[in-house]
Design goal:
- The complex is a heterodimer of chains A (about 120) and B (about 110).
- With about 120 residues, chain A is an all-beta fold.
- Chain A has strands at about 5, 10-15, 20-25, 30-40, 45-50, 55-60, 60-65, 70-75, 85-95, 105, 110-115.
- In chain A, strands 2, 4, 5, 9, 10 and 11 form a 6-stranded mixed beta sheet that branches.
- Chain A is globular and about 45 Å long.
- Chain B has about 110 residues and is mainly β.
- Chain B has a single domain (about 5-115), classed as Immunoglobulins (Immunoglobulin-like).
- In chain B, about 0% of the residues lie in helices and about 50% in strands.
- Chain B has no helices and 11 strands.
- In chain B, a hairpin with an 8-residue loop joins strand 9 (about 90-95) and strand 10 (about 105).
- Classes of the chains: A mainly beta (about 120), B mainly beta (about 110).
- The interface of A and B includes residues 44, 45, 93 and 108 of A.
């Protein structure tokens, strides 16, 4: 059973515009959330994270928003650049019933930024 | 090295063959994780080491999968009698501590079982 869901397999955005990637989770014990970016033939690269005590975290062009009541988080990229084209994975941890640092991943969203 | 490295990057095995996948974590990192990523899926947890101790192997799909980290640094994931369903990318990740911290991933080993 998928505890972290990314319901959009792909997203296409024009350069300079905002990209919004969405993620939903079902396990209310999750308290730490991360976004990873993955290029073909490479491992996932850490992008940004947020703890459940916050509702927003910003790092340059990247902002993650967390809505705990809706069990939803989103990643905003502003402005989008062609180099942002990659697969973005949402991940969560904190399930007290298992290894604390164990990450649960969504299936990923392929972002394409076109000129 | 600066990051997590894995070898080999690609491995083709005949069904029934044993394979060994190696992970070199970031120097000094306490925690080491193995994940399996099937085509079109997100990575799925296999096992976790804190230094040399394997504290969680609940994600290993069968007793054909075995992992070790004898000196608390390099780790090896071994798959015995490989099956076609073992075909996947095997990712290793390390983190500095043993609480919730950012995990840094290696490039993965792509295993194809024919």
């Amino acid at each position: 059973d998928q505890q972290v869901k990314q319901n959009s397999p792909s997203l296409s955005v024009q350069e300079g515009r905002i990209s919004i990637l969405n993620c939903d989770y079902t396990n209310s014990m999750f308290d730490y959330f991360l976004w990873y970016k993955k290029y073909p033939a490479e491992g996932p690269t850490f992008l940004i994270s947020i703890s459940s005590i916050k509702d927003k975290n910003e790092d340059g062009r990247f902002t993650v928003f967390l809505n705990k009541s809706a069990k939803h988080l989103s990643l905003h990229i502003v402005p989008s650049q062609p180099g942002d084209s990659a697969v973005y994975f949402c991940a969560a941890s904190g399930d007290r019933g298992s290894t604390l640092g164990r990450l649960y991943f969504g299936r990923g969203t392929q972002l394409t930024v076109w000129p | 090295g600066a990051g997590v490295s894995q070898s080999p990057r690609y491995k083709v095995a005949k069904r029934g063959q044993d394979v060994a996948l190696r992970c070199d974590p970031i120097s000094g990192h306490v925690s080491l994780f193995w994940y399996q990523q099937a085509l079109g899926q997100g990575p799925e947890f296999l096992t976790y080491f804190q230094n040399e101790a394997q504290l969680d192997k609940s994600g290993l799909p069968s007793d054909r999968f075995f992992a070790e980290r004898p000196e608390g640094s390099v780790s090896t994931l071994k798959i015995q009698r490989t099956q076609q369903e073992d075909s996947a990318v095997y990712l290793c990740a390390s983190s500095a501590g043993w609480v919730q911290e950012t995990q840094y991933f290696g490039p993965g080993t792509r295993l194809l079982v024919l």
